[in-house]
Each structure stands twice: as structure tokens, then as C-alpha cells.
Amino acid sequence: MKKILSVLSALTLGVLLCQAQPGGMGMGGFQRPQVDNVNFDPYVPAPAGFDAERAGIPRGTLETVEYKSTTVGTVRKATVYLPPKYDAAKKYPVLYLLHGIGGDEREWLQGVPNVILDNLIADGKAEPMIIVMPNGRAQENDRAEGNVYAGFQAFANFEYDLIKDLIPFIEGRYSVVADKFHRAVAGLSMGGGQSLNFGLAHMDVFAYVGGFSSAPNTNTPEVLVPDPEKTKAENTLLWMVCGSKDNLMYNSARLKVYCDEKGVPCTLIEYPDGVHDFVVWKYGLYNFAQLIFKK
Ligand code: FER
After folding, report:
1. Ligand 1 nearest atom to the CA of residue 29, by list position
2. Does residue 283 lie within any of the structural domains?
3. What is the mean pLDDT of residues 241-266?
């Protein structure tokens, strides 16, 4: 019996150590601090039908584009939403919208971003904008295959693909305003972590940053906001949402607590009974899209 127990505990330790590998973070179950006394922002439900196709309003379009990535050394795909009546004689802002660990450039389509934006734009609640949904796994084989948790580094590498390859491609192909006040970055889970990491590290590139159910790839608050005065001066919007029942909440909660302490404006909404799914992420997009490009 004793022997069985010690074999079992060795196995458990082995599993824990294995999980501790990628970037010192977890593939599951460790380094998940309980964060107390979080001053959540009020949850206001989205109106019924916000994500339902509405008759009689102009619709945007979806297309797939391919761009050369000097970072990865391959041709990579992104899905692009163009707002209703896209007109190359006008100039648009761009939201870069990033997927999760099991997804690719098509994952966000499950959240009907085109429908949500068509409705918001028809109601005058969001600026007409382009949404670019890239593949955030910046490696040669960027399909969500095999052990997707082994791809943490590829999600980190995407920082360079995004800034050096994708943004210049988008700004060459579409009619956009190429400044930080017309660029936003937001994402779900791993994409939320990427958005916080890249957006706050490149405040000269993005003025608006959103993290929905951000994953353990999210940097610690001290790394995300090393100079609170600079973030206060240079970031226009730092906005987060996470489900109350999502065990990744600590990634968002500890940033919210830190920002509150340092006086850095930051929103975190706790979605009631929310789990790690598109109910929360659609709500995130619905709200975030109304707050950006208003400066
Ligand atoms: C984790 C590491 C990454 C984890 C989740 C993720 C559940 C990412 C999830 C996603 O992108 O959906 O330890 O724990």
C-alpha cells in the first residue's frame, strides 16, 4: 500500500512538473492565485438580439486574405470583416481580434462578429471599422493540431508577425487610418493574453486594448504596466471581461487590482455565471467595439 502511494505521489509530482514547463506557466492547475477584493465594474446585459441577424440593415462582408510573414517565413491567412458599404474613398480604423489556444483565423466566426458589428453600426453605436482576425499561432504549421498547449511560444512570437508583417499588409491593402488612435487589439483567452501583452508593450501602435477571459500567457501586472504614469498617459482604453466561473479569472483580476492601486484606468467586468465560452466573448466584443475609436 505504502509503495502504491509513493508511486502515485511521484506520478502526481511528475504531472505537475510537466505542466510547469511552458514559460513557467501552466497547462493546467498551478500558479492560479486567488485574487480577493476585486473592484469589478458593473455588468450591464447586452440587449436581446445583439448577436442576431437583423433584416433590412446594410451588411458588411467577410473575406480571407493571405500575407507574407517575414517572422514565420510562410504565407499566412487572416479573416477580414469590412463594414457595410466599405468605400475606399473613406479611411477606417482597424480592430485586430485574436483567437484562443484551440482556434485559428476562423475561430472568431463562431462569435458572429460581422452580425454584432453590422447591428452596432446600423444603430450608430460603433464606428464603421475593419476587423482583422489573424492566426495568432506564429509558427510554420499554424493549424490547431496535436497538443495545442505546446504552442505557447508561437503565441508569443505573434507579436512580431502582427507588428512587422500583418499590420503593414493590412494598411497597404485597405483604406485605413494608420495611427494608434485608429488601431485596437482585443482577443479571447490566449488572444486576450496576447492583446494585453502586445497592446500594453506597444502603446505607440495601439491606443485601445481588450482582454476577454485572458489566459495564463498574460504577463504579470508588473510586466504589463511597469510604468503606471506612462500607461496612464499613452493608453486610451484598457478593458476586460471574464466569467465569474472561469478559473482563468486571476489573470484579469490581478491586473485590475494592480491598476486600481496605481490609479491606471482599467475596466474589468465579471460576467455573472460566465464560463470560458463565446457567451462571454461575444459580450466582450459587443461592449469593446462601442468604446473604441471615439477619440
Ligand atoms: C491554460 C493555458 C492556456 C489554460 C487555458 C489556456 C485552462 C488557454 C485557453 C484558451 O485559449 O482557450 O492553463 O487552462
Report:
1. 13
2. yes
3. 98
